[in-house]
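Narrative of accomplishments. A recurring question from our advisory board has been how the design workflow behaves on a single, concrete structure rather than in aggregate. To address it, we present the structure tokens for one chain from the evaluation set, followed by the sequence designed for it. No filtering or post-editing was applied between the two.
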């Protein structure tokens, strides 16, 4: 394990340009690949959250007064510095989030750098309605303005990714930010805040550390926060929706999912099995859009399952700093027990065709797991799995396939696999999910609006809509006749 990455990092709060330790309870950060404590910090109290929001509030008019070009230039400089520190940021993410280093190096972090560049540029391209005479003698113009102070509350599965997708568009639109990382994965986001501290005006980006139950709650309830951008569980999303209702203020809620992968008998089964293996086990399945819930035509179910098992058996589980490792650990002992609980409660008609056990490794690993014989009412279909588990359920008719796919409370993502264009279009229309793919899965990017329906939350991240979420619209009518 690389320990250098940790050497110049102290987990603390950044409030108005000053770094201070929280005065609340101590919290240990573990490496999920070893179970060892790698860092320790103290949580923020209500008073520290208050100070961070006040710092963001007082910095906001000055930040918003910059021209879009000036803000964009600063965010581009931050992006350049991010690129200069890429190796360290990757290692920090490997250490506390348990990511296999090769996937972080070749996929996640290049995509994150690309997102930084995209968001830095969007400061200059906010859209608006045309100015015109919509009433006789009155010219009306529409101004798009920043909201003020944005609170970002991030999860542990993509710690820095989620922070960047909240911080960058919020700042691009002229808001200031208070970010609270997940208590078990604060390393890379804290390093990011250190880098930003050297480049942005004081108070533009603030960070508070601590547990969700107090620091997160205090931030989301704060009356001087204008919008809470949250990614995480449905349960916490609900708590945040209640907190913002009190304001009332706005929220973006990116919550859980259990994405269906509907496979018809005319699909390219090799390609489908390959994608399900990759997109189902990526980040140890701790991915809200993971390709976990296969719903396959009964006529090809056996052939598909055989191909999938062949691939899953070849997945290398191991040390996160080993380039060959594909599957890393789950984030914590608690998360592994949660997934094992779902496996232990499987009904009699289900079969664990592969995995389901802990490998002989330290840390919080679970073997890649494939379960067959699943039915629609099973807990493992109806709940988010958030582990390296792929379930296989069969269907006989197209109507049944759609009914199974949509028959969950979530509405985040899903895919359909078929060579029949009309059927693909029918599913694109009828799947009740905010992100739908045909013959592929898990294609996301900062140019595209990500977001769920139903219990997966509301609001969009990315694309033009993702920037507009961080703005408010004001109409100004001006009498132009004497
Ligand atoms: P969580 O939702 O509790 O935590 C996410 C973030 O919210 C963390 O920063 C946490 O400190 C904060 N938080 C928690 N309670 C809060 C509150 N009352 N007010 C404000 N902030 C609060 O997630 P978890 O407990 O770490 O994981 C539980 C389950 O959530 C997982 O098993 C998984 O199913 C799901 N999850 C989903 C995602 C996703 O991207 N959709 C991410 C993480 C976890």
């Amino acid at each position: 394990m690389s320990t250098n990455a940790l050497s110049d990092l102290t987990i603390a709060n950044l409030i108005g340009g000053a770094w201070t330790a929280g005065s609340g309870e101590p919290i240990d950060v573990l490496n999920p690949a070893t179970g060892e404590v790698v860092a320790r910090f103290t949580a923020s109290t209500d008073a520290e959250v208050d100070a961070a929001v006040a710092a963001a509030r007082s910095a906001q008019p000055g930040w918003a007064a910059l021209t879009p070009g000036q803000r964009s230039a600063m965010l581009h400089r931050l992006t350049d510095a991010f690129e200069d520190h890429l190796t360290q940021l990757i290692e920090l993410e490997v250490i506390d989030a348990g990511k296999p280093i090769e996937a972080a190096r070749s996929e996640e972090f290049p995509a994150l750098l690309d997102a930084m560049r995209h968001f830095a540029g969007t400061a200059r391209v906010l859209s608006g309605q045309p100015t015109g005479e919509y009433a006789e003698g009155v010219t009306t113009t529409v101004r798009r303005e920043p909201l003020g102070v944005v609170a970002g509350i991030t999860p542990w599965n993509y710690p820095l990714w989620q922070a960047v997708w909240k911080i960058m568009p919020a700042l691009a639109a002229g808001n200031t930010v208070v970010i609270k990382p997940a208590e078990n994965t604060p390393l890379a986001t804290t390093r990011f805040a250190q880098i930003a501290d050297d480049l942005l005006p004081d108070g533009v980006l603030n960070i508070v550390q601590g547990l969700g139950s107090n620091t997160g709650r205090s931030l989301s309830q704060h009356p001087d926060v204008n919008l809470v951008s949250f990614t995480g569980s449905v349960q916490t999303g609900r708590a945040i929706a209640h907190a913002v209702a009190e304001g009332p203020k706005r929220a973006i809620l990116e919550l859980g999912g259990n994405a269906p992968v509907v496979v018809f008998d005319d699909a390219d089964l090799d390609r489908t099995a390959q994608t399900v293996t990759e997109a189902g086990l990526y980040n140890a399945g701790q991915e809200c859009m993971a390709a976990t819930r296969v719903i396959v035509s009964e006529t090809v179910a056996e052939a598909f399952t055989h191909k999938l098992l062949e691939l899953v058996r070849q997945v290398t589980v191991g040390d996160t700093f080993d380039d060959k490792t594909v599957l890393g650990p789950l984030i914590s002992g608690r998360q592994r027990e949660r997934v094992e609980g779902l496996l232990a409660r499987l009904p009699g008609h289900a079969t664990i065709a592969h995995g389901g056990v802990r490998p002989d490794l330290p840390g919080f690993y679970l073997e890649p797991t494939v379960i067959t014989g699943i039915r629609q009412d099973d807990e493992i279909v109806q709940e988010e799995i958030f582990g390296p588990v792929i379930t296989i359920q069969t269907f006989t008719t197209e109507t049944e396939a759609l009914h199974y796919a949509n028959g969950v409370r979530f509405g985040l993502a899903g895919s359909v696999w078929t060579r029949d264009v009309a059927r693909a279009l029918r599913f694109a229309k009828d799947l009740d999910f905010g992100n739908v793919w045909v013959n592929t899965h898990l294609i996301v990017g900062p140019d595209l609006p990500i977001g769920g329906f139903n219990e997966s939350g509301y609001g969009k991240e990315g694309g033009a809509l993702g920037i507009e979420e961080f703005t408010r619209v004001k109409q100004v009518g001006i009498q132009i006749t004497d």
